[in-house]
Design goal:
This protein has 20 helices and 14 strands. The two termini are 36 Å apart. 51% of the residues are buried. Strand 4 and strand 5 (91-95) form a beta hairpin. The longest helix has 22 residues, at 214-235. The protein is of the alpha/beta class. Bound molecules: pyridoxal-5'-phosphate. Residues 103, 105, 134, 211, 244-251, 298-299, 350, 352, 377-378 line the site of pyridoxal-5'-phosphate.
Amino acid sequence: MNYQSTRHSQNTATFTEAVLSGLAPDGGLWVPTRWPTEVTATLTADLPYPDFAAKLLQPFFEVKTSLNDLTTLCKMAFDFPVPLRQIRNNLWLLELFHGPTLAFKDFGARFLSACYQRFNLAKPMTLLVATSGDTGSAIASAFHGHSTMRVVILFPEGKITARQQQQITCWGDNVLAVAVRGTFDDCQRLVKNALQDPTWQTSLGVTTGNSINIARLLPQMVYYAYISLKWQTQHQTVPNFIVPCGNLGNVTAAYWAKQLGFPIQDILLATNANTVVPDFLRTGVYQACAAIATLANAMDVGNPSNLERLLHLFGNSEALCAKLQATSVSDDEIRTTLLEFATQNNLVVCPHTATALHVYNQLSPKQIAKPWIIVATAHPCKFEQVIEPILNTVISVPAQLATILTRPSAYKVIEPNLSALSTLVMQPQNKDLR
Ligand SMILES: *Cc1c(COP(=O)(O)O)cnc(C)c1O
């Protein structure tokens, strides 16, 4: 498989080149040059998850890549369960939060890390990551101890939960945690600017672990493919999905799985009070704006990167606006939904998952008669400061997080500009892999 830039189709790259560069040279995002739909018919949902993933992803690698190699890679990356749990009649929860950092970001981060181990780099590289909370911890956990990768994680100061911050700042060694005095969009802009800066490239060899990296998105197609196929086999119907959205990586992966021919009907987008995507779909005019802070903080995005990939998939903004449906959910609605499902279904979800449950609650009677799968993006214990006062309960902490909470933590603080980041990252004591 080759990849092309969303901006100029003549800019192409192999899988390895696309992963190592992160961003295309014209500033676009890498997308597959074709959809290998022939692989879909060869897959059945009775395969173990890592074997299914390897078969599905094989066409997306270089031609010579062996299935055995990929199966090993996928066994390393996806070493945790992916349960589908029934909540109500026709309502299911796809729990993507059973990895080491308890959010769906573990799928992409662990796959990316396994790819880098396979690349076996001759020279060390710096992986830059902007995080709205959960990406940073997933990448830090997946890359901690890597001998050829230095990881720099940018998070918006004061805008993530204490437990999210602990999961980012507890690593040391090859992981440098940086609090940026700004928003997630500032962090993301810094990463893009650094990637396009020739001095960064020559002095460090930089790439990104954000969902602009193609190796983050490809593994996310797998759970949509696997679960929808399994669903169809068991129920002889085609499921619908509701996806909590921020930077639009997860929902792009859902549309890519559908594009590959997996049995997926409607895909609805849920956003928090950041209305950039619903506004765009309603008006056809894209207006990036500053992110506002909400209870679902990992979705506090005012300029979502992966919109460019969705636009590319649908061809133009008219087609995209006609097909996609997004609903903005307020903090009050998140609170009400959390309470409703806790009381009625004894179900505690994270605030992001609650946005999708709220969208579910708004469905028409005709729609609600169909089967719906809510994508549960994080474990509620990561957001205990939000949830516990609302539900008046204590959320128990799984073993993965309990261990992390006991580690010492450290981080640096910078102003939201590239020179501040350069000064920090190029300092010899921060530059060397420890
Ligand atoms: C990252 C994240 C999201 C948003 O996913 P995108 O791929 O950025 O749209 C939603 N929920 C949680 C818990 C997240 O960590």
